[in-house]
């Protein structure tokens, strides 16, 4: 079975600074990988996903993520953070076939002026 | 196109009661998944329904059940509520049941508080 770890529970960055959120997965084959964002009182919104092909994936809101098979990682990046990016971010991994997604515990992002 | 809607948004119950939560998927979506979100356990998969059939089930006790109707709307039921059932219950819909590659669209959730 697949699993996913988000090592950072809470990260604080200054507005305008760059951001990298870490995600490590465990799965025997090439997984499906996702990043979702959850704002307070909201459901989850898909930022980007990786299935195959180019390992650098572009998403919405200026986010990108890079799949690194050798490191079993799928880190989320943004070059310049805006105050509106403050939210909880979830990495998820899916296996081939009809199995449900497995989510990480999330990383809460705070943005300071 | 309207998104996933969940009703009610907030609910307060007492231990031992039962509760039913409702989810209306995006029009045309036939798969509905339910998740429980708590601060300690994060997002945990409850079950998935496709064409009125349960396709997957997570590791939850039998007190948690669900169903899907012919119009793809889904309900989940929790009987004999326990304090630990307090959580945000999220519903997600997808176009079909093609597995994890199907993008899931989440509703805003139902916040359940058990006293």
Oligomer: heterodimer
Low-confidence stretches of chain A: none
Percent range for helical residues of chain A?
A: under 10%
Number of helices of chain A: 0
- The level of helicity of chain B is under 10%
Largest sheet of chain A: 6 strands, mixed
Tell how many strands the DSSP assignment of chain B holds: 11
The profile of the biggest β sheet of chain B is: 7 strands, mixed
Largest interface, C-beta closer than 8 angstroms, per-chain residues: A-B, 24 and 24 residues
Summarize this structure briefly.
Chain A has 113 residues and is mostly beta strands. Chain A has strands spanning 3-5, 10-14, 19-21, 24-26, 32-38, 44-50, 56-58, 64-68, 73-78, 87-94, 102-103, 107-112.
Which helices and strands, and how do they pair?
The complex is a heterodimer of chains A (113) and B (115).
Chain A: E1 3-5, E2 10-14, E3 19-21, E4 24-26, E5 32-38, E6 44-50, E7 56-58, E8 64-68, E9 73-78, E10 87-94, E11 102-103, E12 107-112
Parallel strand pairs in A: 2-12
Antiparallel strand pairs in A: 1-4, 3-9, 5-6, 5-10, 7-8, 8-9, 10-11, 10-12
Chain B: E1 5-7, E2 10-13, E3 19-24, E4 31-38, E5 42-50, E6 53-57, E7 64-68, E8 74-78, E9 87-94, E10 105-106, E11 110-114
Parallel strand pairs in B: 2-11
Antiparallel strand pairs in B: 1-3, 3-8, 4-5, 4-9, 5-6, 7-8, 9-10, 9-11
Account of the 3D structure:
- The complex is a heterodimer of chains A (113) and B (115).
- Chain A is mainly beta and 113 residues long.
- Chain A is built from no helices and 12 strands.
- In chain A, the strands form 3 sheets. In chain A, strands 2, 5, 6, 10, 11 and 12 form a 6-stranded mixed beta sheet that branches. Chain A has a 4-stranded antiparallel beta sheet with strand order 3-9-8-7, with no helix packed on it.
- In chain A, a hairpin with a 5-residue loop joins strand 7 (56-58) and strand 8.
- Chain A starts with a strand and ends with a strand.
- The model of chain A has no long low-confidence stretch (mean pLDDT 93).
- Chain B is mostly beta strands.
- Chain B is 0% helix and 52% strand.
- In chain B, strands 2, 4, 5, 6, 9, 10 and 11 form a 7-stranded mixed beta sheet that branches. A 4-stranded antiparallel beta sheet of chain B has the order 1-3-8-7, with no helix packed on it.
- Chain B is globular and about 35 Å long.
- Chain B starts with a strand and ends with a strand.
- The chains are: A mainly beta (113), B mainly beta (115).
- Chain A binds chain B through residues 32, 36, 41-46, 49, 51, 90, 94-106, and chain B through 4, 33, 35, 42-43, 45, 48, 55-56, 58, 90, 92, 97-101, 103-109.
């Amino acid at each position: 079975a697949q699993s996913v770890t988000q090592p950072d529970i809470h990260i604080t960055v200054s507005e305008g600074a760059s951001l990298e959120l870490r995600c490590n997965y465990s799965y025997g084959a090439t997984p499906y990988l996702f990043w979702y964002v959850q704002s307070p009182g909201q459901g989850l919104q898909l930022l980007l996903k990786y299935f195959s092909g180019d390992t650098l994936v572009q998403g919405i809101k200026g986010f990108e993520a890079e799949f690194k098979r050798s490191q079993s990682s799928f880190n989320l990046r943004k070059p310049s953070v805006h105050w509106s990016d403050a939210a909880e971010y979830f990495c998820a991994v899916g296996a081939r076939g009809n199995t449900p997604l497995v989510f990480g515990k999330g990383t809460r992002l705070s943005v300071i002026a | 196109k309207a998104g996933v809607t969940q009703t009610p948004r907030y609910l307060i119950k007492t231990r031992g009661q039962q509760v039913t939560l409702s989810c209306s998927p995006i029009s045309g979506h036939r798969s509905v998944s339910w998740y429980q979100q708590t601060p300690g356990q994060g997002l945990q998969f409850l079950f998935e329904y496709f064409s009125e059939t349960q396709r997957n089930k997570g590791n939850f006790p039998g007190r948690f059940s669900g169903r899907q109707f012919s119009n793809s709307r889904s309900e989940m039921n929790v009987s004999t509520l326990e304090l630990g059932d307090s959580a945000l219950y999220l519903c997600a819909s997808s176009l079909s049941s093609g597995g994890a590659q199907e993008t899931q669209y989440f509703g805003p959730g139902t916040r359940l508080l058990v006293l």
